[in-house]
Each structure stands twice: as C-alpha cells, then as structure tokens.
Specification:
The chain has three domains: 87 residues, Methane Monooxygenase Hydroxylase, Chain G, domain 1, CATH 1.20.58; 124 residues, Alpha-Beta Plaits (2-Layer Sandwich); 76 residues, 2-Layer Sandwich (Double Stranded RNA Binding Domain). The radius of gyration is 24 Å and the shape is globular. The chain is an alpha+beta fold. The longest helix is centred in the N-terminal third of the chain and has 37 residues. It has an eight-stranded mixed beta sheet with strand order 2-3-1-5-4-9-10-11, with helices on both faces. It has eight helices and eleven strands.
C-alpha cells in the first residue's frame, strides 16, 4: 500500500502539470491508472477499518445476538478479503492491460467452425458479465456455418490478467449437428491472447519490413460489405506474421488497429523466444505442438469441462459456454503462482 499511495501522489502531480491534456490518449491512460490505484487503496483501507471495528465490537459483545452479528460480519469480511487475495494473483507486468483475443478454427471442418463461433459467444458473454467492452475487429465466416477466424479487442481493467490463461487449443466433444448420422465429433479451435501495449521497447518495426495490402471488407460467403478498399492486411516480411483488420470505418483506422495487433504478436514472439532460450539453458526445452489442448469441453456421452493444466473440472458445460469462466481463471492463476515459485 505505501508504494501505491506514493504512485497516486506522483500521478496526481503529473496530471496537474501544464499541457497534461494536450495528448488526450496519454492523459486518459494516466487518469485510468490513477482511478484504479485509488480504488485498490480505498478497498484495502475499508477492510482495515472493518477489522478494527469487529475487533472492538468483540471486546464488548456479551449477548448471543451480538455474537451472531459478529459471525455474520466475519463471513462478509472473509468474502471481501478473498477478492483482495485474488487481486494479488494478478501481478503480471501486463495483467491490467486490455486484450486482443483471436480465435482460429482447427481440425474438424464445419464442426470446428461452429465450435469457434461458440467460443466467440462464450468470450463475448464473459466480457459482458465482467463489464468489459468487447469489439470484433476482423472476422472470416465459414461458407456453410460458423467462423474460420475472428479477432476482437476486449477493454477492461485486468482483462489480460484474467484471460491470459485461455491461450491454447480448446477441444469439443459432442454429437455433430452437421452430419445426417448425428455421430460423435471432436473439434478443435485455437485461442490467441495478446496484451494491448501502447509502447513496446523490445519491438521496432521498420517501414521496409512490412507490406501493406488493402482490399474490400467481406461478409459471410465472401460477400462484399464495403464499396471501398478499407480493409487492411499487413505482412511482416522478416517473420511472415500476417494480420488483418476490416471492421473499422476507414482504411486509416484499420491500419492503426492492424499495426497494434502486429506489435503485440511480435512482442509475444520475442517473449516466447526468450523463454525457450532459458529452457534450453536449463535443459528443459521441449517443442510446443499446436494440437496439445489446454481444455476439453465434453457434451456427449457425458457432460464435463476440464482444464488439463490445473485439473480443475466442472459438470456444467452450459454455464461455462455462457461465459462463467471465473473458477477456471482463478484455478489457473493459482496454478501459475505455484509454478513460478
């Protein structure tokens, strides 16, 4: 808390400087950080005051009714304390940041594309329930049903910290609605999670390293939804990374958004290479395969959702697919905290 209070003073001093609001985006980020820090300090001080009150009350309480009241208040206090304890798990460098979330249909044909659309709905519902703002910025729909790939940006405090554990392959087992025999089908979809970072010191993009192509936005079945070439595709030539954006209003906005995604992907690549180098030095390196799923969703012949890293599972897939990811998120963050120790 002392460090956070000091940071609040520094940000308040910065916000009072002449010309602070000249850069509206920078000023907005500062004020957002200031508001979040003040809320954290306020929440902690309320807990302290609550504890002091109950401690004093317990010294003078004599009746059964008063003791029951203390027990009731203790129950409420423990729940609030658990919320603060959960915040301690969100201590990563970018955990406060917004998120770029991308979904890609894997093996399974039309079923996989339908599964990808189900995951899209799951994350949109999760965003809604957490008061996050979600916006689709690029989408390629399947010809028959579902989605081949989709990219969206999710804005909200702790969005990246809460969603970072969703990255990986998600597996669905169900009776297929897309074949006449209604056979059991296994489908896969890949989830990418990238933090939105305004300034990335490790990533430098030279103009000569990128190729920018423009084209008309398209809807389901390849139908044109825009009469101008506003959609943008950027290729980073040295790495071969390709990003697209077509849902913004203008070509310039699409290019800015695509550049933001490219920077995030290059930063992720940089961090991954650094981590793999560390593992090689420790003799722990093992190549990662696309097909290794992090979570399985089984709807038939029984009902279960299981995270293969934390072993946490539930028998209510309908609730999970409706955006109830809280228990999976907390179990992963606790698993991560133990692994990092």
């Amino acid at each position: 808390m002392p460090q956070k209070k000091q940071k609040i003073l520094e940000l308040e001093e910065k916000s009072a400087q002449v010309g602070f609001w000249d850069d509206a985006r920078f000023a907005g980020e500062v004020m957002k950080e200031l508001e979040n820090l003040k809320k954290e300090v306020d929440d902690f001080e309320k807990i302290e005051q609550w504890v002091d009150y109950l401690e004093e009350f317990s010294l003078v309480a004599h009746s059964k009714e008063e003791e029951d009241e203390i027990e009731k208040e203790l129950g409420k206090l423990e729940k609030e304390l658990a919320k603060l304890e959960f915040q301690l798990l969100l201590s990563g460098e970018y955990d406060r940041n917004n998120v770029i979330l991308a979904l890609h249909a894997g093996a399974g044909g039309v079923d996989a594309q339908d599964w990808t659309e189900m995951l899209l709905r799951m994350y949109l519902r999760f965003a809604e329930k957490n008061n996050f703002k979600a916006r689709i910025i690029d989408e390629a729909r399947g010809a028959e049903a579902g989605i081949k790939s989709v990219t969206m940006e999710i804005d909200g405090v702790w969005a990246y910290g809460k969603l970072k554990g969703e990255a990986g392959t998600h597996r669905l087992v169900r009776l297929s609605p897309f074949n006449s025999d209604n056979l059991r089908q296994t489908s896969f979809a890949l989830v990418e999670i990238l933090p939105v970072i305004e300034e990335i010191k490790e990533v430098e993009i030279n103009d000569g390293d990128i190729r920018v192509d423009v084209y008309r936005s398209s809807g389901a079945g390849g139908q044109s939804v825009n009469t101008t070439d506003s959609a943008v595709r950027i290729t980073h030539i040295p790495t071969g990374i390709v990003v697209t954006c077509q849902n913004e209003r203008s070509q310039l906005q699409n290019k800015e958004k695509a550049m933001k995604i490219l920077k995030a992907k290059l930063h992720q690549k940089y961090l991954k290479e650094k981590e793999e180098e560390k593992k090689k030095l420790r003799g722990e390196y093992r190549s990662a395969e696309w097909g290794s799923q992090i979570r399985s969703y089984v709807i038939h012949p029984y009902k279960m959702v299981k995270d293969h890293r934390t072993k946490f599972e539930t028998t209510e897939p309908e609730e999970v697919l409706d955006g109830e990811l809280g228990e999976f998120i907390e179990s992963y963050l606790r698993f991560l905290a133990v692994a990092e120790k």
